Amino acid sequence: MAGIAVPRQLPPPAAHFTGRADVLATLDEIATGSGDRPPMAVLQGPGGIGKSTAAVHWLNRRATRFPDGQLYVDLRAESGFEPVPSTVVLGRLLRGLGVPGDQVPADLAEATTMYRSVTARKRLAILADDAFSAAQVVGLVPASPDSMVLATSRWRLGRLATYGAGFIELPVLPVTDGADLLAGTVGDGRPGREPAAVAELAGLCGGLPLALSIAGARLVSRPRWSIARMVRELADDRTRLAALDIGAVFDLSYRCLPPATAHAYRRLGEYPGPEISPGLAAAVLRLPGNEATAVLDHLVDAGLLAERGADRYGFHELIRLHARGCAEREEPEAERQAVRRRILGYLARDLH
Ligand SMILES: Nc1ncnc2c1ncn2[C@@H]1O[C@H](COP(=O)(O)OP(=O)(O)OP(=O)(O)O)[C@@H](O)[C@H]1O
Ligand SMILES: [Mg+2]
Fold first, then answer.
1. To test the ligand 1 pocket, which listed residue (59, 132, 177, 210) has its Cβ within 8 A of the most ligand atoms?
2. Which residues contact 6 (CB under 8 A, 6 or more apart)?
3. pLDDT number for residue 77
C-alpha cells in the first residue's frame, strides 16, 4: 500500500458558490471535535437545497486539515430506493485508500475490520453523500479521531446523535444571496441591468439553489432573453416546475414514502397557504390530531416539509407545487374537490 497517491475524490466544486457563511462556520465548530472520536457533521434538507455543494466547498477550503486524503462515496443507489450495500461502499473506500481490489474482503465484518486498521492514525475526511439511513453512515466511521465524517441526507438521521453528530439544517438562500447566485451564473450584463427582475426571479425559485442555478443556466443558453422574460415564463405556478425541469428531484423523495404518507402529501399540497397547523392537517386528512401530527413529522423526516416553529409546518413553494402535481396525476377529481371543501370548512370554522 506504500506509495499510493493521497486520495482526493471530491466532486468538482460549484462554479459560483454563494452565501452559506453560517453553515461553513458551524462545520468549523463541529470539526473541532471532542478528541476521543472523529467528529461527524450531518447536513440535512430537501433535494436541491445545496447540501452536497456546501460540504464539498467546506472540504476544499479545509483540505490541509486532512493530509491523508478526502474520500467520497455516493450512498444513493441507482434506483434511488435502496441504500447501496455496505460491503460495496467499504470496498470502494478501501480501494480508494490503496488496498488492491483482490485483497478487499467480500465479508462485511472483515471489510469493516480492515477499514478500521487502514484508517487508524490517518487524518482523513469522508464525505458520505446522500445517505439513506444512519446505519450506512455509522459503517464508514474511521478509527482515527483526527479524521472527520461529513454526511448529507434528505432524511433526518437523528440516530447519529448517539455518535456525537452535529446536525445542520440548510435553509433556503436569502433573496440577496439568490440574486448573487443568479448573477454569477448568468455572468453577462443582464443581471446588472435588471436588478428588480433578478430579485423577482430569485423569489420565484424560492431561494432553492438548484432552481436558481437551473434558471441561471437557461438564461446562459438564451443570451437574447431578458431576465423579465424568464420571470414571465416562471410566473405561472402550473408550469413553473416543468419550466425549471425540477420535478424529478422531489419525485425521488416522494417515491420513497409509504403509501399513507404519500397520500397525505398529495392532499396537503392542495392547501395554498404558507403554513399548515396540525389542526388543518387533521381536518384535511380526516385523522385524530396526534395521528395528523405524526404524518406531518414523517414528511419532515423525509425532507418534504419544514418545521416553522412549535406546531407550525410549511412546504417549500416548489415542493408544494410538486405535491399538487402528484395529486393532479394520481387523485380522482372528486377526491380533490372533497379535500378542498374540507380545507374551506376548516378555515371558515377557524375564523369564527
Ligand atoms: N451555495 C451555493 N452557491 C452556488 N450554487 C449552489 C449552492 N448550493 C447549491 N448550489 C447549486 O445548486 C445545485 C443543487 O445543489 P446540491 O446538489 O448541493 O443539492 P443537494 O441538497 O445535495 O441535493 P440532493 O438532495 O438532490 O443531493 C447544484 O447545481 C449546485 O451547483
Ligand atoms: Mg446532494
1. 210
2. 67, 68, 69
3. 58
For 21-169, CATH gives: 3.40.50.300
Mutate to test the pocket of ligand 1, among 27, 169, 213 (most ligand atoms within 8 A of CB): 213
> For 145-186, what is each residue's pLDDT tens digit?
999 999 999 999 999 999 999 999 999 999 999 999 999 999
- With a Cβ cut-off of 6 Å, ligand 1 is lined by 14, 16-20, 45, 47-53, 130, 152, 154, 181, 209-210, 213, 249
pLDDT, residue 79, reads 57
How many angstroms separate the Cα of 70 from the Cα of each of 55, 86, 100, 151, 162?
Answer: 12, 19, 18, 13, 24
- CA 351–ligand 2 middle distance (angstroms): 42
Contact by Cβ (8 Å): 147, 126? yes
Ordered by start, the domain boundaries in the chain are 21-169, 175-245, 248-344
Q: Could you tell me which of 84, 92, 20, 91 has the C-alpha nearest to residue 58? A: 20
Under CATH, to which class is 248-344 assigned?
Answer: mainly alpha
Atom of ligand 1 nearest to the CA of 214: 29
Q: Judge whether 143 and 120 are in contact, CB under 8 Å.
A: yes
Mapped onto helix, strand or coil, the DSSP state of residue 210 is helix
